[in-house]
């Protein structure tokens, strides 16, 4: 039964403190996101995964109270997101929930305001989340990354001859370093990636605490050396792949066959299953060279991976070395001063053939570019080209500056690996 709060209630948002508040936090998360499973088990596993995270702090768990009444919660995790050679501290928002009895009473709005204040106090460059359709744009979020492409493989077409060069077994803790190396190789090439900062400690944490409810598989060659891995998970009664990487066709084939055999033992066995892979990854090329596939990219306008700019100054300081690197690799016959305005903020860049530097004062011959926060965010993530930005309402991009800005903001799609979800 829905309960009405008074008009414009004053919510208190803070970390859960008592044993009951902590239990409520994880129970509501499980009941909201996986209601058709054993929510007690899901809540306990989720709690273990979060609390044993190497970088966990209690302040990252945020619960909303109206008086003494618990009405909702979310989690904000600090992570390093790499933009090619630059690293940027961002806030990752997950598990946004409102108690069923208090929905549609601006609880989620209060949670988003708290997330922005939290992020501003820590000078994050962006807030990032994987959101539902048609909600987060009102809080300044914009689409920045598509979901990982899915490649459907017909089970009947998978060769049934055994792979002589590879065998597959469950991954164990001693495999953490090898799994990390494959993850970095295959998922660290995106322009935006969480891969480079991942440590062996974190990989061990995933194996011990995340993968207990999943099936981590490793493919070994004849010398016992790992040549690939496959992470399977069971959700809503289905067994599906959420991350895969392999360096050789025998490893790919062995993982396909193992996945296929697991499907054959299921009460209901679909005729095909899908693997999530970047379109530029060598594992995808190995599959495409040997098997017919149906590849799909699902787009969710105003949904899926979305970001919101937080601190423009922190963002510029982190991106300046990257802009310098891009400028030197793609020299243009242009020198001058560029005034970059983003919303109500801005900076001034002095460009020479070999240097990009921030300056404090405008010159008499500066060129001005104006972006909205949302368009600028998409350009930083490489989600849209500068030519697209130039025709969007409210943007000011002189035509002669398009090649220069294209150097700073190249159009290059990125993908988030399954184990990097939050």
Key structural traits:
422 residues, alpha+beta, 8-stranded mixed β-sheet, 30% helix, globular
The secondary-structure class comes to: alpha+beta
Number of strands: 19
- Mean pLDDT metric: 93
Order of helical and strand elements: EHHEEEHEEEEHEHEEEHEHEEHEEEEHHH
Short structural description:
Helices cover 30% and strands 30% of the residues. It is built from 11 helices and 19 strands.
Could you explain the architecture of this structure?
This protein has helices at residues 19-33, 39-51, 107-121, 176-187, 200-210, 249-264, 282-290, 312-329, 373-380, 386-389, 402-408; strands at 12-14, 61-66, 69-83, 86-98, 126-131, 142-145, 150-154, 166-170, 192-193, 214-221, 226-235, 238-246, 272-276, 294-296, 304-309, 336-342, 345-352, 355-359, 367-371. With 422 residues, the chain is α+β, with helices and mostly antiparallel strands. Strands 1, 2, 3, 4, 5, 6, 9 and 15 form an 8-stranded mixed beta sheet that branches. 35% of the residues are buried.
Give a topology summary:
Layout: E1 12-14, H1 19-33, H2 39-51, E2 61-66, E3 69-83, E4 86-98, H3 107-121, E5 126-131, E6 142-145, E7 150-154, E8 166-170, H4 176-187, E9 192-193, H5 200-210, E10 214-221, E11 226-235, E12 238-246, H6 249-264, E13 272-276, H7 282-290, E14 294-296, E15 304-309, H8 312-329, E16 336-342, E17 345-352, E18 355-359, E19 367-371, H9 373-380, H10 386-389, H11 402-408
Parallel strand pairs: 4-5, 16-19
Antiparallel strand pairs: 1-2, 2-3, 3-4, 3-9, 5-15, 6-15, 7-13, 7-14, 8-10, 10-11, 11-12, 16-17, 17-18
Helix pairs in contact: 1-2, 2-5, 4-5
């Amino acid at each position: 039964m829905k309960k009405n709060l008074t008009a414009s209630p004053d919510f208190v948002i803070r970390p859960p403190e008592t044993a009951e508040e902590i239990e409520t936090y994880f129970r509501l998360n499980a009941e909201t996101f996986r209601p058709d499973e054993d929510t007690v088990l899901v809540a306990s596993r989720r709690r273990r995964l979060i609390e044993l995270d190497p970088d966990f702090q209690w302040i990252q768990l945020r619960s909303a109270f109206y008086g003494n009444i618990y009405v909702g919660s979310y989690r904000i995790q600090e992570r390093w997101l790499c933009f090619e050679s630059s690293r940027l501290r961002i806030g990752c928002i997950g598990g946004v929930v409102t108690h069923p009895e208090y929905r549609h009473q601006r609880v989620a709005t209060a949670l988003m305001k708290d997330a922005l204040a939290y992020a501003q106090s820590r000078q994050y460059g962006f807030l990032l989340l994987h959101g539902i359709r048609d909600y987060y744009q009102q809080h300044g979020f914009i689409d920045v990354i598509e979901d990982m492409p899915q490649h459907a493989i017909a089970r009947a077409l998978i060769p049934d001859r055994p792979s002589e060069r590879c065998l597959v077994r469950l991954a164990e803790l001693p495999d953490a370093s090898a799994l990390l190396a494959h993850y970095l190789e295959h998922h660290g090439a995106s322009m935006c990636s969480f891969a480079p900062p991942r440590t062996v400690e974190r990989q061990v944490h995933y194996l011990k605490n995340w993968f207990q409810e999943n099936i981590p598989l490793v493919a070994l060659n004849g010398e016992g050396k790992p040549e690939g891995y496959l992470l399977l998970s069971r959700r809503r009664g289905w067994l599906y792949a959420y991350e895969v990487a392999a360096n050789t066709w025998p490893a790919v084939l062995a993982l396909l066959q193992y996945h296929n055999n697991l499907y054959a033992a299921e009460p209901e066995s679909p005729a095909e299953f899908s693997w999530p892979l970047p379109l530029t990854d060598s594992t995808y090329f190995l599959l495409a060279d040997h098997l017919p596939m149906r590849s799909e990219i699902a787009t969710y306008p105003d949904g899926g991976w979305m970001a919101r700019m937080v601190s423009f100054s922190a963002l510029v300081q982190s991106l300046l070395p990257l802009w310098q690197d891009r400028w030197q690799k793609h020299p243009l016959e242009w020198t001058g001063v560029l005034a970059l305005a983003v919303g109500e903020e801005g900076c001034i860049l002095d460009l020479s053939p070999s240097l990009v530097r921030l300056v404090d004062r405008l010159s008499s011959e500066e060129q001005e570019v104006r972006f909205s926060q949302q368009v600028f965010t998409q350009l930083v993530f490489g989600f849209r080209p500068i030519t697209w930005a130039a025709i969007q309402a409210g943007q000011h991009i002189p035509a002669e500056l398009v090649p220069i800005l294209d150097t700073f903001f190249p159009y290059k799609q990125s993908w988030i690996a399954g184990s990097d979800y939050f």
